[in-house]
């Protein structure tokens, strides 16, 4: 009896699928040979499905971590802008001395974007790069890692302004902290809540990402079926 292959397995000419044949059942010699290619074919489909699912989970985990990290960075920058009306990187000079909490959250956000350990950026990039490499795109994973190393240089330039450079002089000839007393005031409660929650989430995902990965895995299984 001739055997043809379909996307779901092996099918005889009479329409019966052979993918469910068990090796323990009595089979003729020809039936055994039909059984083995069906198992190989279905196994290939399973590996392909697992790879696709792993890749999509990696992307979802990356998007969650990236969103939280950007929320922290932008919240810190927006808070600084609301205090001073300044938007240049050089205006961040001396931020650590005037707003240490704001500077610490901004630093953690930039470290996370750079992919440094104990922050969400490290685990999300590791998970995503592993998913890309598992698809066979090793060159793409290598390019992404190289790009992350380059971005680290620019993030350190921002941190140098925040922690090393002095407070810049404003338009009136005094530093911007004197021009804008709000820069030395305590940040508002909503900003503190957003920054503290985001910073805590970044560290949590960087140290113990398993709960979120399991949630994404369960959602992926339910969606794909």
Any idea how many domains? Answer: 2
H and E string: EEHHHHHHHH
Query: How many strands appear in the DSSP assignment?
Result: 2
Distance between the termini: 33 Å
Question: Which term fits the overall shape?
Answer: elongated
Residue ranges: pLDDT <50 for 5 or more in a row? Answer: 1-52
Radius of gyration: 27 Å
Mean pLDDT over the residues: 77
Helix content: 55-70%
**Biggest pleated sheet:** 2 strands, antiparallel
Structural class: mainly alpha
| Count of separate DSSP helical elements | 8
Note the beta-strand portion: under 5%
Report strand order across the widest sheet: 1-2
Could you please describe the fold and organization of this structure?
Helices cover 68% and strands 4% of the residues. The chain has 225 residues and is mostly helical. The protein has two domains: 3-40, no CATH class; 54-224, no CATH class. Helix 4 (120-134) packs antiparallel against helix 5. It is elongated.
């Amino acid at each position: 009896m001739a055997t043809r292959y379909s996307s779901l397995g092996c099918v005889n000419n009479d329409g019966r699928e052979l993918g469910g044949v068990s090796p323990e059942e009595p089979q003729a010699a020809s039936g055994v040979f039909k059984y083995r290619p069906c198992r190989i074919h279905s196994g290939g489909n399973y590996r392909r499905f697992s790879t696709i699912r792993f890749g999509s989970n990696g992307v979802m985990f990356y998007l969650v971590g990236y969103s939280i990290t950007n929320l922290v960075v932008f919240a810190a920058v927006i808070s600084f802008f609301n205090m001073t009306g300044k938007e240049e990187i050089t205006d961040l000079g001396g931020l650590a001395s005037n707003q240490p909490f704001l500077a610490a959250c901004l630093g953690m956000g930039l470290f996370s974007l750079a992919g440094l350990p104990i922050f969400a950026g490290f685990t999300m990039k590791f998970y995503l790069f592993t998913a890309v490499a598992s698809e066979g795109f090793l060159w793409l994973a290598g390019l992404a890692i190289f790009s992350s190393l380059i971005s680290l240089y620019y993030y350190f330039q921002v941190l140098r302004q925040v922690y090393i450079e002095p407070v810049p002089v404003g338009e009136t000839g005094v530093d911007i902290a004197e021009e804008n007393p709000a820069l030395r005031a305590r940040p508002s409660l909503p900003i503190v809540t957003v920054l503290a929650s985001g910073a805590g989430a970044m560290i949590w995902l960087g140290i113990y990402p398993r709960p979120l990965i399991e949630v994404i895995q369960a959602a992926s299984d339910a969606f794909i079926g």
